[in-house]
User: Fold this.
Amino acid sequence: MRHALLALPAFVLLLAAPALAQQAAPPAAAPSELEQSGLTPPTILSEGYSTHGQDTLVTRLLGQKVYSSVADDAKEIGTISDMVVTSGQGISAVVIGVGGFLGIGTKDVAIDFAQLEWAERQDGSRRWVLDTTAEELTAAPAFIWTDSEEAKGPAMTPEQEQEQMAPGDPNAAPADPDETTDQPDRPVISIPVDRTGLTDFDGSTLTADELRGTGVYGIDDEPIGSISDVVLTPQGGIDALVVDVGGFLGLGAKPVAVGFDKLSFSADTSGTRYLFINASRGQLEAQVPYDPATYAADRANQRMVITP
Assistant:
């Protein structure tokens, strides 16, 4: 009996230890002003970026060979020579050099980046695969960048430019448009998204942070821009989405407020979200721009209503 009584205090202490530890836990830190406002710090800036299994560096894509399949006898059909980056979407097109010899006589063809597959072979190695043939790529339209030498011709030497200058006052007569060096506007890269495998879902279940950055597609699934912000109602609901239209890498884009009612959201198997609207890029570009300072008073004019 005496041994049992002596053991009792130690047993009681063991039971009490968790309770004491819980009481000694430091109080939770008060939420920061940023957290109180409903915003979170930028993930990459505050926490760094952790690579994933499907990530790759752009520099490692350039010069990579593209094959028709993973088979040992698959033909090499081209080489990745460049990429096209679209605001809000990342890499939208990949330029593949086809044909030629040692870079001479090579034809560039642009394809949708989603068509390329980083495929695994039986031996565990990987290669870039495009389900087509070299003949089909060769027959496809050539990709010519607006500012390239192919589009506007080789650069002239100072002597050649001097020879092209007419004597007299250049402002004395209107310039002939055919003789100016003005270049046409850069064409919009418009590769429709492939809806195969996409699943529709209710966009009202998304938070503001989840909505930001979502790609926006219009009539015929043409890329229009991306969601940059969310406009809330006085009650805290979502009144409109701010879509950045045009621009490049976020620069020079026009913000347009699109009503949140009856919008069609989809997602692919990797979780990437898409917003499809029944409007064209031109309609959004013609819309009155969104101004957060005047939106409440000018809502009827600034808020674009999309019909299903």
Notes: The chain has ten helices and 14 strands.
